[in-house]
Amino acid sequence: MQTPTTPSRRRGRPPKVARTNPDTRDALIRCGVEVLTEQGFVSTGIDGVLKRVGVPKGSFYHYFDSKEAFGHAVLSRYADYFARKLDRWLLSSELPPLERLRRFTQDAQEGMARHHYRRGCLVGNLGQEVTLLPAGFDERLEAILQDWQRRVADCLRLAQAHGELAADTDCDTLAAFFWIGWEGAVQRARLKCEPTPLELFSQEFFARLPR
């Protein structure tokens, strides 16, 4: 009588099973920041992100329920990164307040040039697509911009206290104007692939401040 045999294990690669790995999730988000700052959310395909990171699709859906959830995670990462970038300049006690803001614009110009104007502001990119984005993105984008405005307004108020700005300057309105103009300059610099729009906006903004 023959005894039953255990089926032999098929040789080859092990099955692609999604495993919890913080490094994989981080790599997907970092790649998402790079891609979305270049081409926005709508035109970004998940397959392209997976190919760049080198992970199977199962890994993606292990960490993110959908492309929308992935977009929110990428947006949060970018917002945190940019807030730290702003603080690095705007809270620098070694520089006068207005010079801190000026240095931020110079640093941003250098960053765009470094990437040959392929990358813009992720928040600005998504703002251009807002009518095509899932519900909720508009509120997130506005909240991030409001946070950036608050940081600039605080810097302007400090400049006011130091006598760099007129005592009756409306720092909140001026900060809102700064971001409206700066985001437009970033988009135009990408369009023209040159720094002139950034330089022009920065020059005129600082030249026209109420003293």
Automatic annotation (TrEMBL):
Query: Where is the HTH tetR-type domain positioned along the sequence?
Result: 22-82
Per the record's keyword annotation, is Membrane included, yes or no?
Answer: no
Stretches for region Disordered = 1-22
Keyword DNA-binding on this protein?
yes
UniProt KW keywords: DNA-binding, Transcription, Transcription regulation
Provide the transmembrane region boundaries.
Answer: none
A Pfam cross-reference name: TetR_N
Q: Which parts of this chain does the entry mark as a DNA-binding region?
A: 45-64
**Top-rank taxon, per record:** Bacteria
In terms of PANTHER family, this protein maps to: HTH-TYPE TRANSCRIPTIONAL REPRESSOR NEMR, TRANSCRIPTIONAL REGULATORY PROTEIN
Q: What is this protein called?
A: TetR/AcrR family transcriptional regulator
Per the UniProt record, the source organism is: Salinicola lusitanus
